[in-house]
Amino acid sequence: MTIDLLSRARAGDDDAFRAMTQPHVRELQVHCYRMLGSFQDAEDAVQDTLLTAWRGLDGFEGRASLRTWLYKIATNQCLNARRTASRRVPKVWDIPGMQPPEPTRLGEVVWLQPFPDALLGDVPLGPEARYEQTESISLAFVTALQVLPPRQLAVLILRDVLGFHAKEVAEMLDTTLESVTSALKRARAGLQRRQASEPAPAADSPAEQAITAKFVSAYESADLDALVALLTDDVFVSMPPMPLEYEGREPAARFCAGILGSGRTFELVPTRANGQPAFGAYVHGPDGVRHGTGLFVLELAGERVCAMTRFESNVLGWFGLPRTLPSR
């Protein structure tokens, strides 16, 4: 950012303001997504952040970088959004022709949405960051964040994910250094994540491709035995905004049996979400047209699938996937 750009933006030049802020928009969207767990809410929060920054540009004194100032605005926008958000009502089961088996439990985070890999970028990390970027955008991590109290959530992301210094975080949140230290300690203690038994293969590696190819083959051919053989003993299946969750191979197998035994024929189209392999799921209609039914995101451990999250078909467009595929 140059002094000239800042002067022009303060004079009302929106092109200059856009040139100043555009380099930071993508990472702000990822930040707001981690805070809110919702792709749509994150987009809204970024727009509110830019509007607030535009209106308050005269108050930017340059004591911190523009990036830090924008993160301060975005974080507080997200905190306000979390405080004022109405309680989200879980969606009832609405898949025709199938009655779901009894779930292992009902999940809390029914508002979770996937984040397209195409919108992920390299985010500059501070020296105190404790998480790799791939881990810090995974569905398991983002889900775990959502159950933290809002202030603890903000401190943990700013300190451990982005690596801002404690003093910077205190200034962003208009609080004391002691408060930040205390909140971070409680957040770390409260962050309960599912730990995969083995590390996932590298993205787009031959090992990952081999696992996902087996998954697609089993799913499209409705081969339940082959699909279950790919699952870890502690596999976790969820489907926000429906609260049903299945943990363990047997409960997951009962759920998959209902889907694959429904008499429908599926086709999976690959994409990526949250740094993980994902698939748009399409069901073949009587006329040959394939209709989008949802999006699956897989978490891998070694040579198996340790988690499968199913989202509704309204997310397909975020990944450049159509709602229907023409007949062949």
Describe it for me?
With 328 residues, the chain is an alpha+beta fold. 44% of the residues lie in helices and 17% in strands. It is built from 12 helices and 8 strands. It has helices at 3-10, 14-36, 39-55, 66-84, 133-136, 139-146, 150-161, 166-172, 177-190, 206-220, 224-229, 249-260; strands at 105-106, 231-239, 242-247, 266-273, 276-284, 290-301, 304-311, 324-325. Strands 1, 2, 3, 4, 5, 6, 7 and 8 form an 8-stranded mixed beta sheet that branches. A hairpin with a 2-residue loop joins strand 2 and strand 3. The longest helix has 23 residues, at 14-36. It is globular.
Give a concise summary.
This protein is an alpha+beta fold and 328 residues long.
Keywords:
about 45% helix, 8 strands, 12 helices, about 325 residues
Shape: globular
Helix proportion range: 40-55%
Largest sheet data: 8 strands, mixed
Distance between the termini: 52 Å
Mean pLDDT: 93
Beta strand %: 15-25%
- The helix/strand class is alpha+beta
Q: What Rg is obtained from the alpha carbons, in whole angstroms?
A: 22 Å
Low-confidence stretches: none
Structure summary, number of beta strands? 8
Instruction: Output the helix-strand order.
Output: HHHHEHHHHHHHEEHEEEEE
Number of helices: 12
Q: What is the topological layout?
A:
Layout: H1 3-10, H2 14-36, H3 39-55, H4 66-84, E1 105-106, H5 133-136, H6 139-146, H7 150-161, H8 166-172, H9 177-190, H10 206-220, H11 224-229, E2 231-239, E3 242-247, H12 249-260, E4 266-273, E5 276-284, E6 290-301, E7 304-311, E8 324-325
Parallel strand pairs: 2-7
Antiparallel strand pairs: 1-3, 2-3, 4-5, 5-6, 6-7, 6-8
